[in-house]
User: Which sequence fits this backbone?
């Protein structure tokens, strides 16, 4: 049976479903194909211990919306008055606002920043007086095939290094875990079809690309990446055509529409 080309959204399921809904509302054929699974890393009692320590920190750096979601599970406040929240992009910032964190306490790249990442965030906060301040990095871990875990993020490590060079003491806590999904036979077939039917893979994570099934030829496949590092990972994986876009929805939509009308 011939399949129809569509946009395959590879974010974790909840995020993928939100993006699919937005793409479909814009008239684009889209399908959720999560290449990452997200699971909590800490028990409620462990989270509570971190909440008790909040007054000792000057800022919390949340690496993603998932970091916000899993750090705040069960949270009932109030948020310390002067504790700042650092967000690498508008999605993370929006999650913080939805939980009642004051706008004045959130630092994030400008809406028109070229990229939403650690480097863009650092441009906003680099001149702050970090010497002697304590910062908590709220992140995820990646489950490895050998049973070990890694933080899996060059950008977040880079930001921690910048803060430490500026005199801050950086601690970290992993509140969620990223895992490779287990594909059903139907998903395996759809992935195989999408490697050659003109579908467009939407990648917002280099790690997601590494979770594609092994042994497939991606030479006829197309990818749209939302960051230069992700685009490079797609090329290394063998994708025949790799496009790049800012991660903001309007630019992603424009790039997809252009790809489907070439």
Assistant:
């Amino acid at each position: 049976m011939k399949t129809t080309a569509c946009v395959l959204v590879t974010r974790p399921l909840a995020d993928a479903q939100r993006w699919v809904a937005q793409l479909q509302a814009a008239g684009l054929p889209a399908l959720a194909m999560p290449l990452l699974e997200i699971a909590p890393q800490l028990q409620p009692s462990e989270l509570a211990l971190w909440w008790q320590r909040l007054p000792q920190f000057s800022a919390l750096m949340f690496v993603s919306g998932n970091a916000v979601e899993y750090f705040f599970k069960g949270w009932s406040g109030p948020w310390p008055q002067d504790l700042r929240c650092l967000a690498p992009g508008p999605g993370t910032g929006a999650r913080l606002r939805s939980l009642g964190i004051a706008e004045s306490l959130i630092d994030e790249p400008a809406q028109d920043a070229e990229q939403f990442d650690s480097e863009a965030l650092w441009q906003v906060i680099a001149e702050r007086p970090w010497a002697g301040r304590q910062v908590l990095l709220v992140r995820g871990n990646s489950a490895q095939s050998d049973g070990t875990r890694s933080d899996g993020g060059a950008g977040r490590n880079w930001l921690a290094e910048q803060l430490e060079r500026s005199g801050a003491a950086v601690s970290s806590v992993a509140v969620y875990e990223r895992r490779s999904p287990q594909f059903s036979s139907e998903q395996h077939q759809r992935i195989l079809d999408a490697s050659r039917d003109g579908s467009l893979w939407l990648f917002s994570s280099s790690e997601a690309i590494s979770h594609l099934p092994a042994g497939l030829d991606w030479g006829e496949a197309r990818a749209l990446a939302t960051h230069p590092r992700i685009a490079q990972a797609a090329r290394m994986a063998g994708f025949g055509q790799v496009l790049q876009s800012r991660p903001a929805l309007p630019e992603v939509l424009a790039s997809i529409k252009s790809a489907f009308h070439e």
